[in-house]
Amino acid sequence: MFGVCAAAVTLAACGGSQMQNGMLSPDIAQAPHGAPGDGLGSANAMAHSSSRKGRSWMDPAAASRTLIYGAGDVSSYVFTTGGQVIGNIAEIALSTCSDRNGDVFFNKVNSIVEYAHGGTTPIASYGVPGTAYSCSVDPTTGDLAAVVFCESGCGDSVVVLSTPGKKILSYSDSALPSLLYCAYDSSGNLYVDGYSGSQFGLAELPASGTALATITVNQNIQFAGQIQWDGQYLAVTTIIHPAVDQIQVTGSTATVVNTTELKGVGPRSTQSWIYRNKIAVPTGVVRARSTEILFWKYPQGGSPVRVFTHFIGKGHAEITGVTVSEPPKKQR
Fold first, then answer.
1. Which segments of 222-277 are extended strands (E)?
2. What would the DSSP string read from start to end of 101-162?
3. Is the Cβ–Cβ distance between 249 and 234 less than 8 Å?
4. 189-224 residue pLDDT tens
5. Cβ contacts of residue 140 below 8 Å, gap of 6+?
6. Angle at 257 between CA 254 and CA 262, to 5 degrees
C-alpha cells in the first residue's frame, strides 16, 4: 500500500536552551514588538504574516499563552486558542508534535527541529536517516520518537536514537513493513501504526523493552493516519473521510471499541492532535488541500465547535499537522 521503507526513531528531547544529539540551527530573527496581538475572541484566523514571509516572528504575548501550532508546507503558523495568528515559524514540516515542557518539534527531511514554547529560534536540530514523518514524546522520560521514511538500504526497521553517549538501537517488525505514526501512552509504551500491504496493523515497543511486538487488530482500518494516546485508548484518525477510531489494546490484541464521526470535515485530512476534550484536524472543506483547522469535541464528535480559516493565503500552502503547546509552568 505504501511504497516506502519506514523506520521509527527515538531521541532525547532537550529542555530549556540545551542542545542534545544534534547541531543547533542558526538563529532566526525575532519578531518586532509590533507583531499582531492575541484576539482570543476570534473564531476565524485571518492571515497577518504575508509581509513577514520567509522569516519567523512571534507576538511577545505568546510566551504566557496556550498556543496551537500548525505545521505547513511553506511555513508553520502559531495561533491563540481563539484562532488569532500570533506568530509564524519559518519551517517547512511534514507534521509536528509537542511535549510537556511546551517544546514543539517539526518533522522534516533528514532532521527534526525543536523550538521552545513561543520561540522563534530553534533550540536543537536532530539528524535522522531519512524523512521524519511523525513524532511523539515519552511523558515518563522525555524521549522523542519519530517514524522515519528511509532513503535506501535501511530495511524494514525501527531505529532508536538516544542521547549522546548512548547506543543507537534498531528494531524491526516484519509483520508491519510500512510505518506511519507513533504514540507514547502515559506509561511510556510506544505504539506505531502502519500497513502490511493493505492490512492495517500496530506494533508496540514496551517501556524499557528491547523489541517491537506485533499487535493483531480486530478491524482493518482504511487510510489510517495519526495515532495518539487519549488517556484511555489509542486514537487513530483516518485521513480520507476523516473519523477517529478508539482502540483498546490488551496484550497482543487490539479492538476498535468506538468510532467518533466528524461532521463537517473535508474529504481528507492531515495529522491531527487531541488536547483535553477537543481534537484539532487540519482539513479542507472546500479545497482538496488542508487549508483550515477544525475542532470537535472529543470523543463526542458531531459538528465542529471551532474553525480556523482564511489564514493561509494564496499559493501551494497546506497545513500538514497540528499540535498544542502549553507554556512551561514557570511562565504560567
1. 224-229, 234-238, 243-250, 253-261, 273-275
2. T--EEEEEEEEEEEE-TT-SSEEEEEEEEEEEEEEEE-TTT-EEEEEEEESSS--SEEEE--
3. yes
4. 999 999 999 999 999 999 989 888 999 999 999 999
5. 186, 187, 188, 207
6. 120
CB 229 within 8 A of CB 249: no
Place of cell 464521526: 261
- What three-state secondary structure class fits 64? helix
The predicted-structure confidence for 69-90, as pLDDT tens digits, reads as follows: 999 999 999 999 999 999 999 9
Residue 133 makes CB contacts below 8 A (sequence gap 6+) with 6, 94, 95, 107, 146, 147, 148, 149, 179, 180, 181
**This prediction's pTM:** 0.85
Rounded to whole angstroms, the Cα distance separating 157 from 148 reads 10
In the structure grid, which three cell numbers stand for residue 1, read together? 500500500
